[in-house]
Amino acid sequence: MNRRKKFDAVVVGAGIAGLYMLHRLRECGLAVVVLERADGVGGTWYWNRYPGARCDVESLEYSYTFSEELQQEWSWSERYAGQPEILRYIEHVADRFDLEPHIEFNTEVESARFDEQESQWLVRTNGSVCYVSQFLIMATGCLSSANIPVIEGIESFKGNAYHTGKWPHEPVDFSGQSVGIVGTGSSAIQAIPHIADQCKSLTVFQRTPNYSIPARNGSLDLDYEARIKARYPQFRQRNRAMPAALGCFHAANNQSVLDATEPERRREFSKRWEIGGFGFLGAFNDLTLNLDANDIAAEYVRGRIRETVSDPRVAETLCPDSTIGCKRLCLDTEYFETYNLPHVDLVDLRTNPIERLTGSGIQCAKSQFEFDSIVFATGFDAMTGTLLRIDISGRQGTRLEQAWNEGPKTYLGLMTHGFPNIFFISGPGSPSVLTNMIISIEQHVEWIERCLSYMQSHSYTTVEAEEESQVAWVEHVNAIADKTLYPTCNSWYLGANIPGKPRVFMPHVGFPSYVEKCEHVVANGYEGFSFA
Ligand code: NAP
């Protein structure tokens, strides 16, 4: 019989979301425990330690906003922070707010069952304790289940195999090695220049070429930092009002590219290419909405790739032909330049697909490769992967996996019908991955905290999303995605990267109007939720 520990709330995950949730609920005087499978805090930034791992949101924006003292005392060294610095920051936050005593590390949640009689969750882990609590809050992250590709013989490779999202904690030294890397998404695009720097030879296996914009990273300008810090709350407020909560869209140009002349287009794109970052997509107002407009931006980027990569055949293979911005735009430092190095090769899997892994390397249809190490930069079972790996059951024993077998169904991305008192921070159906994640996380955490206080003050025991409001919300999430170009490619937003995963557009395209909707729901007595 498992020992029982009772709490008001169990939070799963000690990343950016779980730590802030813990902080807020403790401030409300609730008994809270955080269960974390790793042996340290950090979530995404604990696991993704691959060479070159770096945030694609500027460091003065990618940080908590809830404490003015915290944002004044912390100094970032670069425009875009690297993984080690972000992890140090998260550790600092855990320390500063004395959070660690409430976290149980090396504790992986395996199942959670809602006990209808007692209105409480029973949470079981790899340990011997059963955690009993009124509320269960999933702060499990959107990109936290590594996608290990289904390739014949993958277990037979005798060299070193790595996944970017589960990188070892000891330094990996590729010196003198032949290395293969599978994938050309954001992780690979960051890792490739760094691995190429170290190894004897690098072969990149590309299935779909990707658009990437220069990050233009560098040391953080101290005057700029001082100016932002002098009015940090206003800076935050301004960014929260931007699409995706990203400050770069403050300078978005409200003109159609179709109405611009060729010199105007070049000037606007080039200006943003030199500045670097996601602001490129704000060059004109229709780039993510209209295919003809989008293709003009895409052709500009293809032109840049052709200018950068000296071998025209390699350049053509690297040129994407899909919609730009449909998959998450990548930001890079010298990614395309890396293909000019004599020891770096590109294999086009569209004409030479991988057949299997062998003991010594990769066998493609037309050629065979031998490696000391293979890096899988093959992404994640995004947004639902980690939630569905936990055996979660709600009312009448219904399993979450059953309830979501046609794709995730939530109301506001916060709760799902049939599963009372379980909240998802940045769940499917909320803007999450389409925003500066920390801003979305804070908004969810604060909403959940308010909801719990509301329940306390009204002596409610349970809260649950109503089925009707959930159906309407799922339709709304799909309808607004369909007004954009997002559904036009095989992205992980749609679950298209995982064989057999239902194809449903998972995030909500609509920050900041989403926040207004959440506020409206609260103002109308938590419209769409039922309490008992
Ligand atoms: P990803 O964008 O899903 O890219 C995975 C890559 O692996 C794709 O090129 C994919 O090809 C390829 N791939 C997957 N399975 C394969 C197979 N069986 N055979 C051959 N190729 C295969 O994953 P990611 O690069 O880890 O990035 C995921 C997300 O994490 C990003 O979109 C971003 O949101 C976040 N991220 C952010 C940063 C940052 O802040 N700078 C850095 C890294 C990641 P296909 O395209 O053909 O499927």
Structure description:
This protein has 532 residues and is of the alpha/beta class. The chain is 31% helix and 17% strand. The protein has helices spanning 16-27, 44-47, 68-73, 83-96, 186-198, 222-230, 232-240, 262-275, 291-308, 312-318, 335-338, 385-389, 400-403, 437-457, 467-482, 513-523, and strands spanning 3-12, 32-35, 103-104, 109-115, 120-125, 129-138, 160-163, 178-182, 201-206, 212-214, 330-332, 344-348, 354-357, 361-364, 368-370, 373-376, 391-393, 422-424, 463-465, 529-531. The strands form 5 sheets. Strands 1, 2, 3, 4, 5, 6, 17 and 18 form an 8-stranded mixed beta sheet that branches. The longest helix has 21 residues, at 437-457. The mean pLDDT is 97. The structure holds NADP nicotinamide-adenine-dinucleotide phosphate.
Shape: globular
Low-pLDDT runs of 5+ residues are: none
Into which percent range does the helicity of residues fall? 25-40%
What structural category characterises the helix and strand content?
A: alpha/beta
DSSP strand (E) fraction?
A: 15-25%
List strands and helices in order, with pairings.
Layout: E1 3-12, H1 16-27, E2 32-35, H2 44-47, H3 68-73, H4 83-96, E3 103-104, E4 109-115, E5 120-125, E6 129-138, E7 160-163, E8 178-182, H5 186-198, E9 201-206, E10 212-214, H6 222-230, H7 232-240, H8 262-275, H9 291-308, H10 312-318, E11 330-332, H11 335-338, E12 344-348, E13 354-357, E14 361-364, E15 368-370, E16 373-376, H12 385-389, E17 391-393, H13 400-403, E18 422-424, H14 437-457, E19 463-465, H15 467-482, H16 513-523, E20 529-531
Bound molecules: NADP nicotinamide-adenine-dinucleotide phosphate.
